[in-house]
Design goal:
With about 140 residues, this protein is an all-alpha fold. Helix content is about 85%, strand content about 0%.
């Protein structure tokens, strides 16, 4: 009997969340197309490239300006951040290129990742609620 009440409470909670989410939806839903997504990623790539050059350039200037001083390691850290951003940028460019050339396959892979992630969240929530039921009451 207690298990039935728990399931009905979960169902009513899900219905309430759905009702609230529908209430806040816009009148017309605007879907982002793949080309718009790639355009947004290209903007992000440009910003990251700028950040990488600024970090590396700032680090190099700091390294040269503090010649013989204790704080010279800060310039090396900034240059390392710049190189790290460039490596992430290369991976992002590869992803954008993959989406542009193999759109359907990329969408399937993204959908699979989202599906697995959502399944993990749902199963962890269910197992947590079952563990809660198994605890002895005092």
């Amino acid at each position: 009997m207690h298990r039935l009440n728990h399931r009905t409470s979960l169902l009513s909670l899900a219905q309430a969340v759905l009702a609230v989410s529908v209430m806040f939806m816009p009148i017309q839903a605007y879907a982002v197309t793949v080309s718009q997504l790639v355009g947004y990623l290209n903007i992000l790539v440009g910003l990251m490239l700028t950040a990488a050059f600024l970090f590396f350039g700032g680090g190099f200037i700091t390294y040269i300006a503090r010649l013989g001083l204790v704080g010279r390691d800060l310039g090396i850290q900034f240059m390392a951040w710049g190189v790290s951003i460039l490596f992430v940028l290369i991976i992002m460019l590869w992803g954008v290129r993959l989406i542009q050339t193999h759109t359907q396959v990329a969408i399937m892979i993204i959908a699979l990742v989202v599906f697995v992630f959502m399944g993990k969240i749902i199963f962890s929530a269910i197992s947590a609620s079952q563990k809660e039921e198994e605890r002895p009451r005092r």
